[in-house]
Amino acid sequence: MQTVKMVVTGPFNAGKTEFIRSVSEIDVVSTERKISSATERKMKEATTVAMDFGRITVDDDLVLYLFGTPGQRRFDFMWEILSEGMLGFIVMVDSSRPETFREARSILETFHAYAPTPYVVAANKQDMKDAWDIEDMRHVLRLDSSIKLLSCVAHDRSSVKAILLELLYSILAKMENGE
Amino acid sequence: MALRGNLRDFTITQLLNLINLAHKTGALVVEGPSQTARVAFREGKLAYAQVDQEDSSLATVLHKAKRLNSGQFRSIQQRAAHISDKELGLLLINAGYLSQDDILLNLQQHYSDIVQRLFTWVEGFFHFDIDFLPPDERICVRMDLENLIIEGSRQLREWEQLQDEIPSLDMSLKFTDRPGANLRNINLNVEEWRVVSYINPRNTIRQIASTTKMNDLEIRRIVFGLLQAGLIEITRSESAAPQVPTVRVFPTEDKEEQKSLVNRLINRIRSL
């Protein structure tokens, strides 16, 4: 059995677990625990400490694993470990919480430094009324036009599929360019 | 849609950059701890700025810039208080007292002074109001934002340099192996000594900051100073988990098989 993996990363409460849950064929193996900080507790009851783990079986011989990273900086020692051998990665950004954009940019840079694999940025929660415009987010996140910044609603399977496909197209394009 | 947030998360420089790049029209409303500023833009260019009820009239601007003396200023206030800035500007130009360029330059300076004051606001909220229009009686300018952004960037530079030098607070510190150095002969201030007392590969910089009640900027400044002095070096925290061996991205080395594998993934995701 061959396996490949993709990493879903982003700040705390960006929607990583939900993203994986939307397409995983198994219940996401989530190593979540009760949140310790009062502020964080207001937003989520439990958070990912080590990682989420989802699976998509491609055929008899190939399985895609999706790994979600813990969003809080205090667990970032796990990031480098999770990034080992990834095919590509997805940076989830909560479009309605601009206070997390800088953190998202920093996470993106960190993962890109770990492995220069293709990536896409998913502007999640675009269905919320406070969501920022994609193009405004592009400016603030300092993403040039060559980087895919895609609208996303993590609980909508078709939206998640579109993000995964865009990442795979980027991976394929990179291979075809001989990079 | 929503362009609003907190100044702790977005600097004024970042906001100006966004407005500039996106050619936005409207007003950036910044609510600081004690004052509110409205800075209007037209197609990404600075048009007008005002802080609360501060007098931004042309007469006041020219008086502050010493282009009108106190007597002239008083006279205008008494006799021409009812006329708009545009009318006053025309009167001054027609009287040969000031040129159009003089007036616009002084207004540009006044508006950019207001924006530069905003760079010092680190607490407060902002939102972008696309419906805001500068008061009719005021004169608008058309000023590129690049120079203002550069000025704001200078102020941000220290913070960014510190972030570059110390990108993660989850690393630890250790004393450099310099047998000749004697810490007791080095002049450190109280804050630096407090940090030094916690330097240990088992403590992350973040933990030291938390224990000494310093914010990110303060701890980075001190750590940077100690690094520059060659007293300490950054090391991986001993509490971090060990790394696993390198894993291959693809299960095969063959390029064609790799492409085939990606195509199989694409087909599978499409079929979900």
Mind sketching the topology for me?
The complex is a heterodimer of chains A (179) and B (272).
Chain A: E1 2-9, H1 16-23, E2 29-34, H2 38-43, E3 46-59, E4 62-68, H3 77-83, E5 88-94, H4 101-114, E6 119-124, H5 134-140, E7 149-151, H6 157-176
Parallel strand pairs in A: 1-4, 1-5, 5-6, 6-7
Antiparallel strand pairs in A: 2-3, 3-4
Chain B: E1 4-6, H1 12-21, E2 26-31, E3 36-42, E4 45-51, H2 58-64, H3 70-79, H4 85-94, H5 100-118, E5 125-129, H6 146-165, E6 172-175, H7 190-196, H8 205-211, H9 216-228, E7 232-235, H10 255-270
Antiparallel strand pairs in B: 1-5, 2-3, 2-5, 3-4, 6-7
Helix pairs in contact in B: 1-6, 2-3, 6-9, 8-9
Descriptive account of the structure:
- The complex is a heterodimer of chains A (179) and B (272).
- Chain A has a seven-stranded mixed sheet, with helices on both faces.
- Chain A has helices spanning 16-23, 38-43, 77-83, 101-114, 134-140, 157-176; strands spanning 2-9, 29-34, 46-59, 62-68, 88-94, 119-124, 149-151.
- The radius of gyration of chain A is 15 Å and the shape is globular.
- Chain A is built from six helices and seven strands; from the N terminus they run βαβαββαβαβαβα.
- In chain B, a hairpin with a 2-residue loop joins β3 and β4.
- Chains A and B meet through β1, β3, α3, α5 and α6 of A and β1, α1 and α10 of B.
